[in-house]
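thought: fold this chain, then report.
action: predict
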Amino acid sequence: MHVSRVFLLAIASLLLSACGESTQSVTSVANKPIQDSSTSNQVARIKVALIMKTLTNPFFVEMEKGARKAQQETGIDLQVMTASQETSIEQQIQLVENQIAAKVDAIVIAPGDSQRLVPVLKKAQDAGITIVNIDNRLLPEAVEASQMKPVPFISVNNERAAYQSAKYLVDTVYQPTEAVIIEGIRSADNANKRLHGAEKAFKENSKIKLVAKETANWKIDEAYAVAQHLFGEHPKIKLVFCANDMMAIGVIKYLQDEHRQDVLVAGFDALEEAKNAIYQGKMLVTIDQQAAQQGYQGVMAALKLLRKETVPLEIEIEAKAITAKDLK
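observation:
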């Protein structure tokens, strides 16, 4: 009888700890995976929701794989859901509302918009749900204005990684050359950071003239249409930086249709189709931002918070440039 009572008290203690947030402080950026010291029996009742932007982009398929790895290692109840498109912000908001109603213990989210998701995430936090932000940072000003408590953010340094990608284009230029940047969703922090990184790289070479910046909202078809418009206005474009590989693939498709082989394209995400394009000489470089690691560490961070352990407010995943020499 005594053993049974101790066991019930232990379970009750764990469930109570899963309802609260730990006090966090800003710490230095970390690169190592968060290790979990619990057994699957200890966390079997914990419910974590991973909410992503879409599964039409292979990047998020990889992110789910990382989250599933964390699930297998810990035994948590992991629910994975996405909006239909990366621009379906209202749908993503509704997904958060659904998880509040389901009374999950934690939400790990890659938000499609850096501001519009804040109010519903504040609501979730007020309901006692632990929040972990991955991939695209919630705007700190919006978080502060909402009086939402700071949450961990896990991603690459998007500005530095975009600079690295665009720099491969820059280093090929020795005579006057026109360039364009194709952006992601402009209300997304990672899109803005990648824009700034690419701009910084282009400014370092005085022979490069940035003639246009246009959004294609992360999409292949929109990037094709944007490329058609931009090359129509600026037929001398020789360099294109795309803020993700989906848009780079759209640009490459346009260039193929126009039989243009004199344009260098840089991307971001290291999708298999992009790596194949690099191998075939149709694209110069992409960035591997380790989507699976973001999903894995996001779930592990949520679990640690639920167990009242300390988690850094910023966890930086290493970004790696992928060029043809890396694919030999």
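thought: worth noting. Residues 27-155+292-317 form a domain with the Rossmann fold fold (CATH 3.40.50.2300).
final: tokens above.
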